[in-house]
Specification:
about 200 residues
């Protein structure tokens, strides 16, 4: 048991990823489903706030080169190689928090309770910055590219999950508004589903 999300690394690959909060680690299974009965091939992380450690891993996304994991309570996103080696502190976790242990914030280089994450084939990372009511797009080398929404203003209230669709569309779930938003690649709302 535990909470978290799972995502397939590759549609043709049987490996599955799952961030498990109560274990404070990422588990990778060799089965088609991630469950307690699966054969876990690998685990990443341990409890803590240092590089490669988690206080509350929540979401995970991967491409062929990178595994990206949100750690909600430490307000950071960490990256790993596909074999589980911590990539480096200077990438996303440093963008999110200038130093490990630095305060969370609402500035363009800060995150506040990141929940969802998606990664493109070229390594661009999309993060739902829930506490700041926005989505941040970050390049593979850790540079902020774009921000959709802003604290206290905008269409997003408490974005949670995120997925990338065909044609560059961005799909975001918003728990406070009980809606799903379809955004264009530039952040404009194309459609929304759900009522509040």
């Amino acid at each position: 048991y535990g909470t978290g999300s799972s995502s397939t690394c590759n549609p043709n690959d049987a490996r599955r990823l799952g961030a498990v909060r109560h274990l404070h680690e990422l588990l990778i299974s060799e089965g088609h489903t991630a469950s307690l009965n699966a054969t876990w091939a690998q685990s990443i992380g341990a409890y803590g706030v240092g590089p490669g450690q988690f206080a509350s891993p929540l979401s995970v996304a991967a491409n062929t080169n990178t595994v990206v994991i949100t750690d909600e309570f430490t307000s950071r996103v960490q990256t790993f190689s596909p074999n589980g080696t911590f990539a480096r502190v200077g990438m996303i976790s440093e963008l999110a928090r200038v130093n490990v242990g630095a305060p969370e914030g609402s500035g363009p280089d800060n995150l506040l309770y990141p929940t969802g994450v998606a990664v493109t084939g070229d390594g661009a990372i999309y993060v739902t910055d829930s506490g700041n009511h926005r989505v941040q797009r970050i390049s593979a080398n850790g540079q902020l590219i774009e921000v959709f929404g802003s604290p206290g203003i905008g269409v997003l209230d408490f974005p949670q999950g995120i997925a990338l669709g065909p044609g560059g569309d961005i799909w975001v779930t918003d728990s406070a508004k009980s809606k799903i938003f379809q955004l264009s690649s530039t952040g404009e709302v194309k459609s929304q589903f759900g009522e509040r």
